[in-house]
Design a protein that fits this description.
CATH superfamily of chain A: Farnesyl Diphosphate Synthase
Largest interface: A-B, 47 and 47 residues
Shape of chain A: globular
Oligomer: homodimer
Helix content of chain A: over 70%
Largest sheet of chain A: 2 strands, antiparallel
CATH architecture of chain A: Orthogonal Bundle
Number of helices of chain A: 17
CATH class of chain A: Mainly Alpha
Low-confidence stretches of chain A: none
Strand content of chain A: under 5%
């Protein structure tokens, strides 16, 4: 076995293993009479059909975090592969249903599953992906003791429950005008950060780490997940693609209650007045983004991202990450909040 | 502890225990900020809101079968309660999503969840119910060994995967004109019988029965599930409520590819000719039901129901059911296929 010396080498050794594990997990939906169901899933995962390829697959950030944490906690990351497939499938199940709920025609530049096969089949394909996630997780018991597998299953299901609670709030907020920054945090914690916290917790759990250290790794993931979402919100208004017009979807036009928008509303100034007059058109986006910035929303949001990143790095240090994987976790944390797209 | 002597007494002792277990399972979705999500679930389960009550809850046949099998396999049915809640929640998750997929405004005479709270929230409420089912199942480990719990979790997830495969087929068949009786069986096995087979298998598994006997109990559930569906198809055309006009939904008007309809189509006679001319109106239902009967569809379907019931009873006998619960399983099997609604 070669000793990996660079972060890039370690990540590049994990990514194909994740992809292979995902393929095994998803193949359970295949069969003579359900080939098309299987095809829906492989399409959504970016393996098949229109514009398939690495760009269509996303970054696989959740399974990577899980495997890296397992290794950084002193475990063998290969033993955690079933769990890494599981978290990626849970994430993708939620995307399939999100796209229906948000009426989104595109995901990563490709036609969404529901646009392709209709709402009824897309709901069902999401359900299949959800089940495949949990079937994947149970394969942990090829290498892990039964009580750890049960703990892992419960942790993942709890994350799924949080996900649905967060999604309930997100949908509810869309139609409400009384949402504040205080309402924002429980929503993003449930909808985004909880699953990322579960990735780092599961990685530690599978390496059979003591409870205290598992909790630290979970705290790391939770802060990282929140930082990630806040950064996402920042890019949703001032991101490269948004302002240059490469991406058509600004959070300003979709009406999403993101952190900078909630901050802007709390200022009761010009942005607030414009928002209350009704939905925002694409041509207004550059000017309104500038207005929000001048009212302090950008620096507030950046400040929150920085604070959460600092908390993540502190929790990571407390969890005493080992070896190259520990180093990579630190690098990823810094990179995620410095990203521009 | 009283000794229960009649079937009715045994069932009446199980039903409140199932309801209590369901309430505990569903309460996990509750919380300060997600009260409405919890309310969607309790509404769907018939506990709250419009016309709540026993009529709105369904027969809880799946959890009953599970508990009865556990007892008939020599186990303590109380230990199986978490699994009984799990199968009922899986069933109800599938109903919530089915109602969206079928565009159904009513379920058991009440407004469907999606009609009440919109499609987006209903998809999410179904997802929450799905997760709660699996969280309920994992509570088995308060009384059962870890390896049994993992086996039970895998068995239930496999049933869920089958459910989505069956639903894929059902949705696919709706739009196709080349479906035959040969296509019917794998669809209903996956969509309906697999979950009922899982109820009886889990009941046996939790009583720590040997594998051979577990398989027999599973075979019993599978045949029973198929018989149940065939009988449902029969009632969907010649049922009491349908022909007297008490129920407005005949399978003839919904265009469902049920067994009598597929038989009728295979005869290439007058029914086939009428079917090919386009959708059937409510006022044509009595005449077309008579026509289908005269072309042999009713006696064919009844014959299949009888054959499957016989197979179920044989499998039940092979699994050597014990005590009063064993007797009740036999009675339920006979009752299910003699029911009129």
């Amino acid at each position: 076995m070669n000793t990996l010396t660079s972060s890039e080498e370690l990540i590049q050794s994990m990514l194909p293993a994740i992809e292979a594990e995902l393929e095994v997990a998803v193949s359970l939906a295949n069969g003579n009479i359900t080939k098309t169901l299987h095809q829906m899933l492989t399409y959504h995962l970016g393996w098949e059909g229109e514009a398939a390829g690495p760009e269509a697959r996303g970054k696989r950030i959740r399974p990577l975090l899980l495997l890296l944490t397992c290794s950084a906690a002193g475990g063998n990351w290969q033993a955690a592969l079933p769990a890494s497939a599981a978290v990626e499938l849970v994430h993708n199940f939620s995307l399939i249903h999100d796209d229906i709920q948000d009426n989104s025609p595109l995901r990563r530049g490709r036609t969404t599953l529901w646009k392709h096969w209709g709402i009824a089949q897309a709901i069902n394909a999401g359900d299949a992906m959800f089940t495949l996630a949990h079937l994947a997780l149970l394969r942990l018991n090829e290498h892990s003791p039964a009580d750890i597998v049960i703990k892992a299953a419960r942790t993942l299901q709890q994350a799924c429950l949080n996900l649905t609670r967060g999604q309930y709030l997100d949908l509810d907020y869309e139609t409400r005008n009384d949402i504040t920054i205080d309402d924002y945090w429980p929503m993003v914690e449930a909808k985004t950060a909880s699953l990322i916290a579960t990735c780092t917790e599961l990685g530690a759990l599978i390496s059979v780490t003591d409870e205290e250290r598992c909790s630290e790794f979970r705290r790391f993931g939770l802060s990282l997940g929140l930082a990630f979402q806040v950064q996402d919100d920042l890019l949703g208004i001032w991101g490269d693609g948004i302002l240059t017009g490469k991406s058509t979807e600004s959070d300003l036009t979709s009406g999403k209650k993101s952190l900078p928008i909630l901050f802007g509303l709390s200022q009761n100034g010009s942005f607030y007045n414009r928002w209350m007059q009704g939905s925002i058109k694409a041509e207004e986006v550059p000017e309104l983004a500038k207005l929000l910035d001048s009212e302090g929303a950008r620096s507030f949001t950046q400040g929150q991202a920085n604070r959460l990143t600092k908390e993540a790095l502190q929790a990571l240090e407390n969890s005493k990450p080992e070896g190259l994987a520990g180093q990579v976790l630190k690098e990823i944390t810094l990179k995620l909040v410095q990203r521009e797209s």
